[in-house]
Every structure is written in C-alpha cells, then in structure tokens.
C-alpha cells in the first residue's frame, strides 16, 4: 500500500520568505510526527499530532514554526520568515496508534529545505 | 532528559567483516529501543526493536540486545555486505507518552567490496 508521502521533495527559498511543507500519512494512522534532520543537530523531534490535536509541540524551535493537521490526515508544517539555520531535511512519520511505545513509525522521504 | 549516544562514523569495512555500532542511552524508566536505517536516497526504515531488558531484536542478519545494566543497545552483524552501506540511527521511546523518538547522531557505514 501507499506509504507516507511528503511534498515538495526539495524546496529552495530566500531568507525571510514563508514556506509550507506537506505530509500525507498512511491512511488510518492516527499519530503523526514531524522531525528535522540537519547537519550537526542530527534528527530532532518537532511536533506530535494525535488526530487533529497537537499535545506535544515541545520540539518546535521558535514561534516561526507552526503545524496543523486536518481531517485526521494531511499535515502542514509552516515556517515563517525563514532563516538560513532552518535549512534541513524535514521528515514526517505516522503510526497506527497514538502514543504507543511499541508502535513502529513509518517515515516519509522528507523535504529538503534550503534557505539562501 | 532522555538522550542517545552513538559511536561516531564513518565506519568503513570490507565485505564479510564483522560490524559493531555502539549505542548507549540515558532515560528514566524502561524505554523501548530501536535501530533505524537510512539507505542512500531513501527514507528512514525500522531495522529492529526491543521493548524490555534482555530482549534481542533481529532483522536482515542484524542483532541488538537491550542491556539495562549497561544502558546499551549495540548493533551487530556477523558479515556485512556492500548493500548494508547506509546511515544507522539508534533511537528510544522516552518517558513521554507521546511515542516521540529520541535519536542518536547516526553512524554512516560504508562497506567496500
């Protein structure tokens, strides 16, 4: 079946512009996660959705970052007034049961964001 | 807070060599432990997992044993292949009840024929 998809696969933007990154999780997966993979910082958790609500936003690095999820499905990560340090690969993952410690997370291919 | 420390790479091995990638963790309680792999140009995939002390996870010839006494989850394979070249991430489900993963820095493995 279809896996997690993300779009765009690559995004180049100028400093100060806003960007939107999209994630389509596996159908029926109630848990959705955003992570960021950058040089020097490794893989960092950003935000967790259970259905349409986000009980854990502790990883968002600043108030320029926000995310929403609609219909318990698609999620959008928005970065306002992008900075060069935002350059990274943004990964989305979904899991069939919210909050389960043993449930595998299925990752998308990522969106590579470059801020010039 | 919860954290994972992996040996730094890159690790370069010849085909059929023995592989060990060290991973240690700091966490409260009894976290679940994972190894994820990222092949070139592909997304992260779960390689194996262990959910309690002394559990051994295994997959594709790779093994890792959950050692609570040493807070370790080292990845091993007896005979690596060129196709094993990838980046390997150790991770844990920490003390939060959200299921979020805490990752190590990743270790790049290159296997030469």
Index terms:
heterodimer, A: 116 residues, mainly beta, four-stranded antiparallel β-sheet, 11 strands, B: mainly beta
What does this entry look like structurally?
The complex is a heterodimer of chains A (116) and B (113). By secondary structure, chain A is mainly β. Chain A is built from no helices and 11 strands. Chain B has 113 residues and is an all-beta fold. Chain B is built from no helices and 12 strands. In chain B, strands 2, 5, 6, 10, 11 and 12 form a 6-stranded mixed β-sheet that branches. In chain B, strand 5 and strand 6 form a beta hairpin. The model of chain B has no long low-confidence stretch (mean pLDDT 93). The interface between A and B is medium-sized, with 29 and 24 residues.
Short structural summary:
Chain A has strands spanning 5-7, 10-13, 19-24, 31-38, 42-50, 53-56, 65-69, 75-79, 88-95, 106-107, 111-115. By secondary structure, chain A is mainly β. In chain B, strands 2, 5, 6, 10, 11 and 12 form a 6-stranded mixed beta sheet that branches.
Radius of gyration of chain A: 13 Å
Q: What's the overall average pLDDT of chain B, rounded?
A: 93
Task: Give the uncertain stretches of chain A in residue-range form.
Answer: none
Quaternary organisation: heterodimer
Annotate the secondary structure layout.
The complex is a heterodimer of chains A (116) and B (113).
Chain A (H helix, E strand, L loop, with lengths): L4 E3 L2 E4 L5 E6 L6 E8 L3 E9 L2 E4 L8 E5 L5 E5 L8 E8 L10 E2 L3 E5 L1
Parallel strand pairs in A: 2-11
Antiparallel strand pairs in A: 1-3, 3-8, 4-5, 4-9, 5-6, 7-8, 9-10, 9-11
Chain B lengths: L2 E4 L4 E4 L4 E3 L1 E4 L5 E7 L5 E7 L5 E4 L2 E4 L9 E3 L8 E8 L7 E3 L3 E6 L1
Parallel strand pairs in B: 2-12
Antiparallel strand pairs in B: 1-4, 3-9, 5-6, 5-10, 7-8, 8-9, 10-11, 10-12
